[in-house]
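[step 3/7] fold_predict: job queued, chain A
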Amino acid sequence: MIKAPLTILLAGPRGFCAGVERAVQIVERSLERFGAPVYVRHEIVHNRFVVEALERKGAVFVEELAAVPEGAAVVFSAHGVPKEVTAEAGRRRLVSVDATCPLVSKVHREAERHFAQGRRIVLVGHVGHPEVIGTMGQLPAGAVLLVETPEGVASLELDPGEEIAYLTQTTLSIDDAQNVIAALRARFPRIHEPKHEDICYATTNRQQAVKAIARRADRLLVVGAPNSSNSLRLVEVAQKSGCRKAALIGRACDIDWAFLSGCERLGLTAGASAPEALVEEVVEACRWRYEVAIEEVAVTREEVRFNLPRLLCA
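[step 4/7] structure written:
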């Protein structure tokens, strides 16, 4: 059978970021140090392939600390947790290991600094996302107000004389976040801004890489989980940047081949919590049906590395 040609435009960077690599390594090192089972509160990162691989090694994922036996080891996910969770772990004598991404921890420290200086804080983010819950949970109830859209800025209940600062979830669409920030600046001209942008380097790089291939692609696939904010944003960025036919898939078995009918150039990327093995799986699935040529389109190189907690380095 003669295969139709297909050029795969591989976005770079793609897949695992330094924070995700660190979080996965923390679970693996914890298993080595404390032995199985090691409990993990919530998914360590938003990817079932990664979670199931760690389960096979002895990790047990739970929704709340109540499911963790007293004295056991528990890892907090890369998204961060409210302070009440770490306090509860201490009360129950759990051996807690914090896998919060250092860039999320930076936002937590910014929130604490603004609060100490008497400012009300506006957090730009998505309702119900674990990172947002963790960030808001660093401070007393009511200290942080959440806004998702430019329209939401108008309904923020703040006194005209209040000192105000804003922070952002690290995995937002850059363009969408800027629209909300512009609305905040327009309503609150004296609002305090982050010293450095809160949206993480990996989110920014992956969105820029998608923009670089979107106009050249007939279709675009993002490998990632449906509950992964940064993966969903990549689909949105592709659609807004010239490739309306963009879709999210968990892995190769989720590909709708009818969706690729007539496609000659396929854009391919992965969210920051999706391992490269899943990208390779998609490429191999395409090779069964097409005569594939690979074109790497890299906008930058990432060399960021984060240290492990001291508890696991001794």
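[step 5/7] annotate
The mean pLDDT is 95.
The first helix runs from residue 18 to 34.
exit 0
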